[in-house]
Design brief:
With about 425 residues, the chain is α/β, with parallel strands linked by helices. It folds into 2 domains: about 1-255, Rossmann fold, CATH 3.40.50.1110; about 275-425, Galactose-binding domain-like (Jelly Rolls). The chain has helices at about 35-40, 55-60, 65-75, 95-105, 125-140, 160-165, 170-180, 190-195, 210-215, 235-255, 295-300, 390-395, 405-410; strands at about 30, 50-55, 80-85, 110-115, 145-150, 185, 200-205, 220-225, 275-280, 285, 290, 310, 320-335, 340-345, 350-355, 365-370, 375-385, 415-425. The strands form 4 sheets. Strands 9, 10, 13, 14, 15, 16, 17 and 18 form an 8-stranded antiparallel beta sheet that branches. The relative contact order is 0.14.
């Protein structure tokens, strides 16, 4: 939903000035080295092919993801296709690079689509380089025969550059990594931008139901209910068509299948070493309880992403650990009953981080940043539940939400599930 856009790129630095980064000319498909391994296997009778979809809420929708999967099955009936759905709403490449192994690579895809051009809109180009290159290098280091394709989506707020003939900033940054590694890219929003420029697109509206409503549109296409997440029957059909069109030039560019080899890095500080450790790699005080998905219904809801989800409720409950590396965060949940966390990194002054925001009328996946661009040495972390709740009523009011049942909100809970590291935990 639209609310997810407010949580884009939760571990990023500020954007540079507009004149510091050149936007790439808009082009629906840049085939580069194509998808030779995937296409060769797709034409093999009896082949079992897995397609990974790593992205945000636009990929999580019943839209371009299942539509393209169905297209491949129809186009190559001699093979059997299945998906690895690794989409999480409201998250960008700066979480994707950490969860890549668990959510994608462990399932051994033959083709990996990466969709973060919308959710990375708050990230600096350098941060996008680090994350996207980390995704590429991790993939080809683990599965050298897996082909990769970057796909870009569009929202109304990101459309002005596209309408002017340029990719939006995140897609332009991703093109640098695609160029470096010969990865094909598809901008699924080219036709969307064209329709908008011609005045034939309605960015935000429900789909017309009556004859009168359809007539009032005068041939215009209704893109999405919120200007972001396309209607499956309209916006996502435009996305599907872009992929189908792009497959032809990609086929032409695809030469003999062969394992991918890793070139020298595009950026030395890329996140090839990014990974996720269970929260049990840390020392948790006795107040934290494991929400075992086998016995706990709430824990079961998140088992696909967090197998060691814990819950702490009492002020003073702590988590401590040491790590050697340059970046650290906690993969957790935020929600109505969450409070604040006191973060202490090494000998630096402690800081307080809320685990509650204006959309916390429900629980959702999030991350808690501990440290970024750190010296590559051993660091010590202490997390402690703060005794005071944030002003939840005031925070909710910023988005027009209210406390419905006080008992749902009156708590200081913390739900850690994993440690996200560029580095390793030190025992």
């Amino acid at each position: 939903m639209l609310r997810h856009l407010l949580f884009l790129s939760f571990l990023t630095s500020a954007l540079p000035a507009a004149d510091e980064f050149s936007l790439v000319p808009a082009q629906e498909c840049r085939p580069r080295n194509g998808l030779p391994n995937f296409l060769a296997k797709a034409t093999t009778a009896g082949a079992d092919i897995k397609i990974g979809y790593l992205g945000g809420s636009i990929t999580a929708q019943p839209g371009w993801r299942p539509k393209t999967l169905a297209h491949f099955q129809k186009a190559y009936p001699q093979a059997k296709f299945s998906e690895i759905n690794a989409a999480i709403g409201g998250t960008g490449s700066d979480l994707g690079v950490f969860r890549l192994k668990q959510d994608v690579l462990n399932h051994k895809p033959d083709l990996l689509f990466v969709e973060f051009a919308v959710n990375d809109s708050g990230a600096s180009p350098e941060q996008i380089f680090r994350c996207m290159e980390g995704i590429v290098r991790q993939t080809w280091k683990t599965l050298p025969e897996c082909d990769i394709c970057f796909v870009y989506t569009l929202t109304e707020s990101l459309a002005p550059a596209m309408i002017d003939g340029k990719f939006q900033r995140p897609a332009s940054a991703m093109e640098k990594i695609a160029d470096h590694y010969g990865i094909p890219t598809i901008h699924m929003g080219m036709e969307v931008a064209k329709l908008a420029k011609e005045g034939r697109l309605v960015w935000k509206a429900p789909l017309p139901k009556t004859a009168e409503e359809k007539k009032a549109l005068e041939g215009k296409v209704v893109f999405a209910p919120d200007s972001v997440h396309p209607h499956p029957d309209t916006g996502h059909e435009l996305y599907l068509a872009a992929v189908v069109r792009s497959l032809e030039p990609i086929k032409t560019a695809s030469k003999s299948p062969a394992p991918h080899t890793l070139a020298a890095p595009f950026i030395a500080s890329n996140y090839e070493q990014a990974g996720m450790q269970p929260i049990t790699a840390a020392t948790l005080s006795s107040g934290f309880k494991h929400l075992d998905p086998k016995t706990d219904d709430f824990g079961k809801r998140w088992a696909g992403r967090m197998t060691t989800l814990h819950k702490g409720t009492q002020p003073g409950d702590t988590i401590t650990f040491k790590f050697k590396g340059t970046r650290c965060a906690i993969f957790d949940l935020v929600g109505p009953d969450c409070g604040q966390i006191i973060i202490t990194l090494d000998d630096k002054p402690s800081r307080i981080a809320p685990r509650f925001d204006a959309y916390c009328t429900y629980h959702r996946l999030s991350t808690l940043l501990i440290g970024l661009d750190l010296e590559d040495k051993v660091h010590t972390v202490k997390l402690e539940i703060h005794p005071e709740q944030p002003d939840k009523a005031a925070i909710l009011a910023k988005n027009g939400n209210k406390i419905d049942k006080p008992e749902r909100f009156n708590a200081t809970a913390f739900y850690p599930g994993a440690i996200l590291l560029v580095g390793e935990v030190v025992r």
